[in-house]
Amino acid sequence: MKVLNNVVSIFVVTIVLAFIIPLPPWMLDFLFILNITLSIIILLMSMYIKSALEFSVFPSMLLVTTLFRLALNISSTRLILSQKGQAGNVIAAIGDFVLGGNPVIGFIIFIIIVIVQLVVITKGAERVSEVAARFTLDAMPGKQMAIDADLNSGLIDEQQARKRRSDVQREADFFGSMDGASKFVKGDAIISIVIAAVNLLGGAAIGMISNGMSIDQVLKVYSIATVGDGLVSQIPAFLISTATAMLVTRTASENNFNIELLKQFSMQPTAMIIAGVVAAVLGFIPGFPTIQIIIIAIALIVLGIALRNSMQKTALASEVPAAVPETELTETSFYKNIDNVYTLLTVEQIEMTFGYSLLPLVDESSGGSFIDRVVMFRKQFALDMGMVIPSVRMRDNGQLNPNQYSIKLKGEEVARGEVLVDHFLALSPGEVAEKVDGIDTIEPAFGIPAKWITESKREFAEMAGYTVIDPTSVIITHLSEVIKEHAHEMLTRQEVNTLINNLKKANQNLIEEVIPNIVSVGELQKVLANLLKEGIPIRDMETIIETLGDYGTSIKDADMLTEYVRQALRRTITRKFSDANQLRVITLDTATENLIMNSVKKSDHGSYLALDPDTVQKIATSLVQQVNKVRELLPTPIILTSPIVRIYFRKLADQFVHGIVVLSFSEIDNSVQIQAIGNISV
């Protein structure tokens, strides 16, 4: 196994040695055949892969195969010049077969192959590689932001996001390498002409001067060897050049090149029928071979008709027969049954209504993927926050505008948005290379200025630096943000009982000891809701209940219990809000913290903050100033306080600033570096 791991390194070293060490004819024959076989394998691999990244080693492979061919050329030239044109059976056989007794024909064929490879294939592949490398690099920021959008909407998880980011980086590296590696093939084609000239002219000179051969003998011997040597190296080079062009022109698809080609051609039977008719018309031109034209025309027409009939049968088979309508009850007779009236009292936890233009996004029979995206978001939300969101009820709403949708919680609308089904939403990250034309709008989830653009402008917008999002992702992102903001409202006692029963399977003793002996289900629900309200995951239910068991005997205030639970979840909180083991925060000065602590009053129902309006206004003014100052650095500003102050300052800050996080020193892991970038002072 270790030998196999080093076989490539041994092969490359052997190639380098072949430049210097003379090779016997029998070994040269073996290596020529190996070279041809290797090039065939590379060509077939380029046809059977689904995307270029599946053959990411190709640029390095291109260098190795080019070196291999050059080493063989040098070895064959050495034999041709020193052994009177005898450089092995492979060169002699190909030279005799191609020349056919006429050296001029052989040279013309050799030159044509070299020019086709150099001018047509290699030049085209070089240009495509250059453009692909530039476009891939330009589109990288947009692709990275699109991955972040999919991750935030729950379409993909963190592992899939890392893989997609890695693929984007590898794709840029691949096309950048291909842009330079294609020069190897171009140089190989040029050097082959030089070697052919050296073989012929040098062989003629050596044959006439050193060996005393006549001009006829020289031409016969060295022309066969020259053409044979040129072709035996250019045939593999031609195959690898074709593989290069195929790789750089290949787009990512679900199937390999063969299947995609047959599939896409078979989707257009009308084109084959028309091509068959046009081919038949060519038979009327005087002098054209009628039999060959008739065979091709009939084959195309028959194939086109067969494909069209097959497509029609498939379409008919996929149609669902309409159900026979049943006799409908009148509205009055339906509600005569009092049990049916109670169905009107049911309130859905989460409900979405759509205008009629958006129904294709939701309807699975029309190809809509919205329901699948909601399922993926539910899975990701459960992994991130430890709570399973309820099913989302979806229905149409004629009272909405055609392009509008509404999100309701417990029957009341909490958000509304508007999307254009046949457009894409382009978000500007700030400065862009070039502005794109579109319909100005506001992104519904975060309130960011954006533009609706058509499909034809999507690629241009991505290259200009915009983040381009499809309509379904816009709605999913909006729904996910609404659910994250209101998750604490959707945490019912039924859901808490489900979480308890789930933990009971793994730690029955803990549940029996704490619930309901120390903490009731209602009190646990309040603590979990407090955590969710501030975006703290409740997935570690074992730690939460253990902490409540420790402090619940002496403390009955749900807010204070929540503070102790937050401290026990310090690793979770640190992971969620820190970046690269660093935490940039706004702090409170000592005087402000003392002022807040001295203003805390206790009552039978808990503690509250009693500050005079002037002091509250001063704290709020300083808070808003500091938050606005760091908004560009921190999308979610973090306020760091002492443990005893955190809960009261949080309640105070919520009245003036939205979208901030308030943490205490006890909730931060000791390994994190804290950097203060602002200070709140009165």
UniProtKB/TrEMBL annotation:
It comes from the Bacteria. The chain crosses the membrane at residues 7-24, 30-49, 61-81, 101-121, 189-209, 221-248, 269-285. GO terms for biological process: bacterial-type flagellum assembly; protein secretion. InterPro entries: FHIPEP_1, FHIPEP_3, FHIPEP_4, FHIPEP_CS, FlhA, T3SS_FHIPEP. Keywords: Bacterial flagellum biogenesis, Bacterial flagellum protein export, Cell membrane, Cell projection, Cilium, Flagellum, Membrane, Protein transport, Transmembrane, Transmembrane helix, Transport. Its main location: membrane. Gene3D superfamilies: FHIPEP family, domain 1 (3.40.30.60), FHIPEP family, domain 3 (1.10.8.540), FHIPEP family, domain 4 (3.40.50.12790). It is a multi-pass membrane protein. It is found in: Cell membrane. One of its GO terms (cellular component) is plasma membrane. The keyword Protein transport applies. Belongs to the FHIPEP (flagella/HR/invasion proteins export pore) family. Required for formation of the rod structure of the flagellar apparatus. Together with FliI and FliH, may constitute the export apparatus of flagellin. This is Flagellar biosynthesis protein FlhA.
